[in-house]
Every structure is written in structure tokens, then in C-alpha cells.
Amino acid sequence: DPKGDRSKGPNEQPDPDLFVHVVEKRKDGIIVRGAKCHITGALNSHWALVVPTMAMKPEHADYAVGFITRSDAEGIIYIYGRQSCDTRKFEPDAEIDLGNSQFGGMEALMVFNDVFVPWENVIMCGETEYAGRLVERFAGYHRVSYGGCKVGVGDVLIGAAALAAEYNGTEKASHIKEKIIEMIHLNESLYACGIAASCEGYKSACGSYMIDLLLGNVCKLNVTRFPYEIARLAEDIAGGLMVTLPSEQDLRHPVAGEFMRKYFQAVVPAEKRIRILRLIENLTFGTAAVGYRTESMHGAGSPQAQRIMIARQANLEAKKELAKRIAKIKD
User: Fold this and answer.
1) What is the Cα–Cα distance from 13 to 2, expressed in whole angstroms?
2) What's the mean per-residue pLDDT of the chain?
3) Which of 1, 52, 174, 237 could form a disulfide with 19 if both were Cys (CB 3.0 to 4.6 A apart)?
4) 131-322, which class in CATH?
5) Domain spans, the chain
6) What are phi and psi of 230, to 5 degrees?
7) Are both 10-126 and 131-322 of the same fold?
């Protein structure tokens, strides 16, 4: 939800639409209004599952609404989000400068402008007492998934950094080896935590499987840090040319291109170096950085949300009792 003034609740906002809410209940369904921000892949999905994003109080009943809806339902409007370097896609014959010309992602502001939802597609309507638990469980699943998806992107970035070192002729330098090892260590630590959160999960009474919420939040809190360090090390290995390269059009220019091929060659021809540097740029500063950097920080909840959940799930009192027992402290 847009949320507006964070110091105020949903029903206290100057504009009631800053949280998705029910504006009318009918015999055959409900009418909802509001918006959801930065929804990844919204235009690529056939259906959308809409849920609250915070615990609700009794006075928030109209905002405790959850439902599924077709993505093309009447009244849903998508306003496409910008990404760094996105206009490169519109440059004539652009390919190398995109860094990654085959894959990408998108986010959008998803507006619900009086959207009708039939009752059979409504999963929550006024049950404020369940909103907090729903958010915790949904967020837990989402946070664990980052132990896989961000690690996959990290694998690409680590490979690109290793190639950049080879192309520069620095792959045998001890400090380069150490940096790549550190990148691998951080990346695999994320993966291990995500796997652990799933393996330590349990079967609920209804038959679905729940992740270990403590490990899931630990996984995501690590994701708010490690990709940034992996990106920093990749930039270190790649060198400054990554952000000072002339354009692909210059490379194809009959005069400028000859100078670029002459002065940017190293162990390999200039074009190979340019291609791998553009990929690193794409992952750390370009369109893919939306998903690898900022989304790692704020996706599935900002860092403080994970800290709150870790504090709730840690069972600190039990740890105190262990320490007392070993220290032979009696109450």
C-alpha cells in the first residue's frame, strides 16, 4: 500500500485510498479502491492476490481485505515503473549497451479504481484479527525465496566478475582470488540459510507447509547486506571502465570504433571486455539493479521488519535459561 503518512493508521490518512479498502458491499461481491506500489511482474501475471500489508485494529475493518482478481479486471490500472538506464532499450540497434538484452523485470503502480470482486474470490473482509498473522506468514515465504532468486543473480555476477578478471589479465592476482572467494562465500551463505528455513519447516494442520520463520527472516536480513557487498567487489574487480565506456554506437562508428578496439583490447578483443563490463554495469547500476540491489533491501519488507520478526521468534527466554543452567544460577 502507498501508506501515506507512516505515523498514522489506514483510517487516519487524509486520503482514505492510501490503503486498499472496501468501499461497498453487495449481495454478489465487494467494490475495492486503493493502490499497491512497486508490484513486481504485475503485467506478466494472469491473476493477482491482494492482501493487507500490516496488522490491523478493529477500527481498520474496511482495510482488512484480501482477494484474488484477474489482472485485467475492469478498474485496474497499471502505471509502469522506471528503471535506471531503461531508455537504452529505445536506442537504435541497442544490444551491447543493454548488458542483458534477453531478460528483465518490471514493477508497476497497480491502481484499483472501484474494482468489483465476487464473494467467491474474497478471502478476507473485515477479519482484522487475522491480518497480522497473514502478513507474517506471507512475508516469511517471500523472504525465504530471496535465498534462491538473489543467489541466482549473484551467480551471474560472480561469473561476470571472474571473466572480467580473466579478460584484464588479473585473474591470478591473490587479491582478485580472495575477492571472488568472498563473493562465493557470501552468495552460498544466503542459499544455505534459505534452504535451512525450508528444511526446518513443518506441516500445518491444513496440510500446507510452513517455513521456519526465524531462519526465513535471518535469510532476508542477510539479503539486505550481502548482495551490496558482492556488487561492490564485482565493481572493484571490473575497474572504472565499467562506468566510463563510450557507447555501442561509438564502437560501431568507423573512426571512433577503431580507436576503441585499439585501446580497450587486453587479453581478449575489446568487444568481449565491453560486453562483460556492460553486464556487470547492468546488474549493479542498470535495469537489473532494481532487483539485485534495492529490492534486496526493501523487497519482502525492509530490514527493520525482519529485525522485529527475529526478536519475536528467537525465544530469548529459553536461551537465558540455558545460560543460567550452565552457570549454576538459581532464581
Assistant:
1) 11
2) 96
3) 1
4) mainly alpha
5) 10-126, 131-322
6) -60, -45
7) no
Answer whether 141's CB lies under 8 Å from 211's CB: yes
CATH architecture, range 10-126: Beta Barrel (2.40)
Listed in sequence order, the DSSP H helices in 239-329 are 241-244, 248-251, 256-263, 270-284, 289, 295-298, 303-313, 316-327
pLDDT digits (tens, 9 = 90+) for 132-176: 999 999 999 999 999 999 999 999 999 999 999 999 999 999 999
Per-residue model confidence (pLDDT) at position 296 = 96
pTM metric for this prediction:
0.93
331 pLDDT tier (thresholds 50, 70, 90): confident
